[in-house]
Amino acid sequence: MTAIRITVTKTAGSVPRDAGTQMLVWADRTEGTIGGGTLEWEAMTEARRMLRDGRTNHSVTMPLGPALGQCCGGSVSLLWEEAEAMTTPPARPLWIYGAGHVGRALVNVMAPLPDFDITWVDTGADRFPETDVTILVAKNPALIVKHAPLDADHLILTYSHEIDLALCHALLRHDFHGVGLIGSATKWARFKSRLAALGHAHAQISRIACPIGDPSLGKHPAAIALGVATAMIRPEARQTKECTA
Questions:
Q1: Is the distance from CB of 145 to CB of 152 less than 8 angstroms?
Q2: Most buried residue, 24, 118, 162, 222, by CB count within 10 Å?
Q3: pLDDT tens readout for residues 155-171
Q4: Same domain, 115 and 71
């Protein structure tokens, strides 16, 4: 079914979304968002007029304050064009180990983000709430690390320090984009010593980030999840070979 793709081609001043943001509009549904409330509503209305009238291309620059009564104060240039599908970058593989309070909070925050393809791992099916993400049940989670993509990010927050250590050991023998481990400075000092005794070099061990989250936000599971998610969606988090969570 034909759709209209709306692209933010240029911005100036305070605006809801950056240049390059896209959304698709069909007669009966939408996918993606260019943000901005009234801006998006007007853009969708124009897209559906184009579908009705058979037009395939349109562009305009919209000053958000004068034209739409929005308080942003900037301007947005939009391009409407016929499209069969919207090209989006592949989702980042994210493996989360542990379905406890912090694991659940993390999935609640990360799952709605289109940039991540989540695989959630724990030792028992009864530990998971109802969810749309991919679930893996493994009595020994470390044994399934070999199935993870080599460019995946991993967040380790199980109920067991021994499972956490085994996962760190398995990941250092595998490969990864980034690893974040929940725990205190004391826990991490012990883990570094034990991982070194298992034969891992300091340079490799240091690729694991511990503790995770933003200490200034506190230790509530939701606060930890917010800190981790904020670190992971920053552009620089994908440009380095270390999970900054």
A1: no
A2: 118
A3: 999 999 999 999 999 99
A4: no
Are residues 16 and 72 in contact, defined by beta-carbon separation less than 8 angstroms?
Answer: yes
pLDDT of residue 243: 41
171-193 pLDDT tens trace? 999 999 999 999 999 999 999 99
Q: How far apart are CA 218 and CA 232, in angstroms?
A: 18
Amino acid at 222: A
Q: How far apart are CA 221 and CA 213, in angstroms?
A: 10
List phi, psi (to 5°) of 31. -140, 130
Contacts of 19-22 with C-beta under 8 Å, sequence gap 24+, read 22/86
Domain boundary among 83, 113, 134: 83
Residue 97 included in any domain: yes
Shared-domain flag, residues 189 and 149 = yes
Round the average pLDDT of the chain to a whole number and report it: 88
Contact 18, 34 (CB under 8 A): no
- Provide φ and ψ at 25, rounded to 5°: -130, 120
Is 200 inside a domain boundary? yes
Q: What is the CATH number of the domain that holds 194?
A: 3.40.50.720
pTM of the model: 0.67
Of the candidates 194, 197, 191, the residue with the CA atom closest to the CA atom of residue 211: 191
CB atoms within 10 A of CB 139: 7
d(CA 41, CA 39): 6
**Structural domain boundaries enclosing 101:** 92-238
